[in-house]
Amino acid sequence: MTTTPNATSAPGTPSASAAPLIRPARLRPGARVAVVAPSGPVPQERLEAGLDILRGWDLDPVVAPHVLERHPWLGYLAGRDEDRARDLQEAWCDPSVEAVLCARGGYGVQRMADLLDWTAMRAAGPKVFVGYSDITALHEAFARRMGLATLHGPMVAAMTFLKDARTQESLRATLFEPESVRTLGLETAGALVPGRARGVTLGGCVSLLAADVGTPYGRPSAAGGLLLIEDVGEEPYRLDRILTQLVRSGWLDGVAGIALGSWAECGPYDAVRSVLLDRLGGLGVPVVEELGFGHGEPALTMPLGVPAVLDAESGTLTLEVPALS
């Protein structure tokens, strides 16, 4: 493992949100996929249930060596930082692996991102990468360091994936038949702020995006992008603080449009909605609410790094190209 302390992207690697990123190839039946745990500890019974779902899709899942470990004194981490990083790097650099799927989120990605050898991973070529929540920090790192489009999607041991059929089908279709899921959104989605915008998708868990500002892996701004944000367990006043940080830092300057996912355990939605409208409504861009991604049910798979059109009136995000090539 080598550290990469500076924020310079590789030559020719897009780092601005307005630039479409490299789309990895779709999966075929029989594809070998690696399951890693970059963040929190993984309950074995939930992992096994998730692996059964993947096998039912005719995938060949392999579990990284340290997935079921727990840090010796920091119980909220799935093993030591160097072991979690090694699992991810070795899975990515394994030529027999076509996709890397995260087992769960939690906390810990930011602790291990600097331990990855991004040069070696870039040399291994593009692969499918899936996760959400704390994995947002890796989505940003893959975009900045590798110019790679990724999937903000359900994780193998997450309860939403295990019990929600629509969540499962959204991921399955994206992996195998990405042209069939070009228009994304729930029936309940609609305009918080009206309008229509085009840009390249980016985003994830908004608290992680704010925490990444100023780090080697956080992008300088969302300018020109269609920003997808959601979160879990953040009360309205904390969401206000997070969004205010993004506004004050200039990170939201020039954003083309915003799509809002679920706000699970963040308090009454009316209160959350008031904060979102107050902090985002003055940006002068379309904002769609309840698009259907994140910690709630269903959790639709959302490609990051792909050109798309956001239509607030219809409550849809339409990809201009399939998520995977």
3D architecture notes:
This protein is an alpha/beta fold. The strands form two sheets. An eight-stranded mixed β-sheet has the order 6-14-13-8-9-10-11-7. Strands 2-1-3-4-5-12 form a six-stranded mixed β-sheet, sandwiched between helices. It is built from ten helices and 14 strands. The chain is globular and about 50 Å long. It has two domains: 148 residues, Murein tetrapeptidase LD-carboxypeptidase, N-terminal domain (Rossmann fold), CATH 3.40.50.10740; 137 residues, Glucose Oxidase, domain 1 (3-Layer(bba) Sandwich), CATH 3.50.30. The relative contact order is 0.17.
Number of strands: 14
Number of domains: 2
Per the principal axes of the C-alpha atoms, what is the gross shape?
globular
Q: Report the mean per-residue pLDDT as an integer.
A: 93
Strand order of the largest sheet: 6-14-13-8-9-10-11-7
CATH overall fold name of the largest domain: Rossmann fold
- What order do the helices and strands follow? EHEHEHHEHEHHEEEHEHEHEEEE
Q: Which sheet architecture does the biggest sheet show?
A: 8 strands, mixed
